[in-house]
Amino acid sequence: MTVTGPGVRIPLSPQSKAQNLLKTLKSNDFKVFLLLYLFQNDLKLPEMKYKMLVLDMDDTLLTDDHNISTLNKEMILKAQKQGVYVVLASGRPTSAMISYARDLELDLYNSYMISYNGAILSTVKEGEILFKQTLTKQQIHELYHFSVKTKTHIITYLDGKIVSETDSEFIEVEKNITGLAHNKVASFLDAVTTDAVKCILLEEPNYLKSIEKELQLAMPHLSVTMSKPFFLEVAQNGIDKATSLKLLAKKLNIMQTEIVAVGNAGNDLSMIEYAGLGVWVDNVTPELRDKADIIVASNNNDGVAEVIQKYILS
Question: Residue 114 and residue 188: Cα distance in Å, rounded?
Fold first, then answer.
């Protein structure tokens, strides 16, 4: 069997068909034995019945103009009718996800959202927060000083608004994506008097990439990921999309091997590696291309629909 996408042709051998089972096995010796046995006997494991589909939003589910394609929506509705939980997992604030979730009828199927890159897990229907983890005021202030030192912009989120001390073309992108108002303040430190869910450092992509490594060394106690080439996202230690996904799977009694996760960027990597089937869309960040189990069509070419058709509805 071969999985194809634009410019991609990935053969699925007996070894790769075993990957979902292997993720749940703890004995390396047994993993090696199983792989060799499957390979030598050209055997195939039974097709996995997936119970949860976890979707990144920007540059994955959504097209470049921030819309859900007709085919993607059609397939998502079909998956839910078959009893599959569809979960949105984004770096976006919760308020910037809810309209999409309702458009996909996630509220009618009692589903969930993972927002702020895993810092908040909530229900779609009632908006009940099941899990929340924030950065402390002190940590945010430390990040501000780091941003000044490295000449990067910094934003956080307070009272439903984007808070920053500066203007930037990259802050404008975040405003357009989230639809949140921008509270430009005279003093970031004076404005941030409480904990907040996350911060983003913003700057030109090539420069920001070098800052990513510097920040990870300077503050190893924080979770640092790149969601867009000009967005360096910072959350509390141990917080990522997989963290909330594990909590949700446990709540719903869904096994790791029964989860499909689809994404495109560094802030998706944790859930791609955790899921039984980890999927990149074709527009994935180039250096991450070999980190998923399969690659499908891009966000502009119904990649999510392809996953559902091939691995959930078939």
Answer: 27
